[in-house]
Amino acid sequence: MRGVTEASRQQALPPDDDAPLLDELMPWSVAPLRFGRAWIVAPDVRTLRGRWERLVAAEGGEREALFRPSRARTTGTAVAALPGQRTGTGRFARESGPCPEPVRVLSGPFDEQWLLPDHRLIDTARPELWRVADGPQLFMVEQGHVPGAAGPPLLVSGALPEGRSPAGRPGRIRPLFRRPGGAEPNLAPGLPGFLAERYGRGAGDPMAWAAWAAAAACPSPGGCRVPLPAGPEAWAAGVALGRELLDVQVRGALSGTRPRLPGGRRPYVRAAVPARPEEIAYDPDDEVLGVGAGRISPVPEAAWEYRVGGVRVLEQWFARRTAPAEPGSLEAIGPAAWPQEWTSELLDLVTTLALLGEREADRAPFTAGGGPGRAALRAAGILPVPAGARRPASVLDHQEEGPEGQFMLI
Predict the structure, then answer these.
(1) Of 71, 140, 165, 334, whose CA is between 20 and 30 Å from 182?
(2) Would you call 379 helix, strand, or coil by DSSP?
(3) Terminal Cα distance for the chain, rounded
(4) Which three-class secondary structure state does DSSP give residue 88?
(5) 20-34, 169-183, 197-211: which range is least confident on average?
(6) Is residue 36 part of a domain?
């Protein structure tokens, strides 16, 4: 984190806690994105296209009002295109072209939605993340610390994450790789070799590290900690568990097989979700999730009770699709009725949360650590981390379009 010294990081941990901070082991991190206007994100692509068409059809003051200007963005703002995106760079007041192709983003914990990837619409887009958001990339999303709150301190996404905590606490986004194509792992210099020497050759692999972090991460007031194990057997067991957790979080993208609950435990729609459900509720006795008059079961209690930052994920997911919008605003443009694909996504989400919730207790042995701590990492020359490792890698061979169509090298 910028402006934070090594001494202050040490002081942030309790004196008797020598477990290293994730901030020390994955030193390059980026603050959450700030979209600035809610209408540029939606659960479905058709909604975004409808909002875009309504906006570009408006003129003058009406366009400005629909746009919802902020200090960072107005219809008169000219900015560079986002890396990898072909969108306009002229002032939006003159925009009349077709809707840019929406991209998938993680808008909240386990909530994949669609975003209009136009830099003129996003207050703080973090272009450095867009430059490395390709196929091999994984984003480790460190949650802001909420004392006593239930939920994992670290989430993982293959889609570009907004990175904001549901509890409103600031977190950090840590890409697994510093360059496109899975090049240059975002690990403290010397850490891969240190891990390989202690736990075996494969321990230096970035994916093995990501798996261990998913299994062992635990919260602290100073930030997410990742204790290291005593020996190779504990490392191998933690990595095996972590790979399962990673694959569930990215919906089977690593294994190529979508996660499923055992046959008798798979959730099904027992009564169709109505056109406009107003509430979501859970009956633990019958394991039924009520979505308005709709009924889904069996839904394990672990799925319903799964929280991030103390906030129940299923309730937040539902609220973001059913919250009332201001009449006449772009946010009010959306599906006339609950789409079938939302029900399918809800079934997938229930499965994801159930699998993670049922394995949460299995993480306990690995969060205890018992291996080398921060003192050992300092003795090995890995800590303190050099300042350069905390900055994004330079990309010198890629052209990006700047404001008003000018090109620049970065």
Answers:
(1) 165
(2) helix
(3) 22
(4) coil
(5) 169-183
(6) yes
Rg (CA), the chain: 22
Q: Tell me the C-alpha distance between 170 and 4, whole Å.
A: 15
What is the residue range of 81's domain? 6-258+363-409
* Residue that the structure tokens 């040490």 belong to: 10
Residue 40 lies in a domain: yes
Q: Please report, for residues 109, 127, 176, 280, the alpha-carbon distance to residue 363 in angstroms, rounded to integers and kept in the order given.
A: 19, 34, 21, 30
- pTM (2 d.p.): 0.91
- The pLDDT, as a whole number, for residue 401 is 58
Query: Cα separation of 328 and 204, whole Å?
Result: 54
Neighbouring residues of 59: CB distance < 8 A, sequence distance ≥ 6: none
Instruction: Give 60-103 pLDDT, tens digit per residue.
Output: 999 999 999 999 999 999 999 999 998 999 999 999 999 999 99
User: Which of 8 and 338 is assigned the larger pLDDT?
Assistant: 338
Q: What would the DSSP string read from start to end of 204-253?
A: GSHHHHHHHHHHH-B--TTS-B-PPBSSHHHHHHHHHHHHHHHHHHTTTT
Q: Is residue 210 part of a domain?
A: yes
* Cα atoms in the Cβ-side hemisphere of radius 13 Å centred on 253: 12
Question: In which element (H, E) is residue 191 found?
Answer: helix 191-199
Return contacts of 192-199, CB within 8 angstroms, 24+ apart: 194/377, 194/380, 194/382, 195/235, 198/228, 198/231, 198/232, 198/235, 198/371, 198/372, 199/229, 199/231, 199/232, 199/235, 199/236
Least confident of 139-143, 209-213, 393-397: 393-397
Residue 185 parent element (H or E)? strand 183-185
- Give how many domains the chain has, as a whole number: 1
- For residues 25 and 191, the answer to whether their CB atoms sit within 8 Å is yes
Q: Decide if pLDDT at 404 tops 70.
A: no
Rounded-to-integer distance, Cα 131 and Cα 276, Å = 39
The β-bridge partners of 141 are 155, 173
Residue 170: inside a domain = yes
Residue 134 has which token pair? Answer: 């390709």
Q: CA–CA separation, 201 vs 219, rounded Å?
A: 29
